[in-house]
Amino acid sequence: MQEVVFSLLGLGSAYCSPCPPLSFELLLFLFQSNILIYLTICSVIGAFSVSSVKGLGIAIKGFFAGQPVLQHPLTWILVITLVASITTQINYLNKSLDIFNTSLVFPIYYVLFTTIVITTSIILFKEWVTMTVVDIIGTVCGFLTIILGVFLLHAFKDMDVSLGNLPQMLVSNLKKRKSRK
């Protein structure tokens, strides 16, 4: 449990401060029609939920090892933070889905959420310090592959491409290129 305490001390009062919710509402008031504001709020709050779950996982591991984690106030703070962050995250995600198209919300949210959670993990738990260079390169390449895959799925969602019509599409594209020359 001490490792969680030391990790969370780096955040200062961000977990307990009323400033983030107030700043979120101010941003929404100023930029009501911007999808990135809604989804950034969801992603930042989602990073709190992921960090809380990670801390609770360490607490559960300590509980089964016989440590008195239930008496530690941080365990209960993490539970409260988890419930509050999930509730807030779902609230803002529903607001964004009410205003914007679902086909825009989910790809952007997925990429933002993943980016912010990885960044939070780097800062809060300093996981990348123990990774080798090969592991870091593999993680970054995997992350970039996910982002590229989400982009490609979203960019070409309206195209009717299947294995059966792929040769026909290639032939028609070649004919179009030859006719342009």
TrEMBL record:
Gene Ontology terms: cellular component: membrane
Bilayer topology: Multi-pass membrane protein
Protein's cellular compartments: Membrane
Swiss-Prot/TrEMBL keywords: Membrane, Transmembrane, Transmembrane helix
Regions that span the bilayer: 26-53, 74-92, 104-125, 132-156
InterPro entries the UniProt entry points to: Mg_trans_NIPA
GO MF: magnesium ion transmembrane transporter activity
Signal sequence extent: none
Protein's UniProt keywords contain rRNA processing: no
Family: Belongs to the NIPA family.
Name of the protein this chain belongs to: Magnesium transporter
Organism: Strix occidentalis caurina (northern spotted owl)
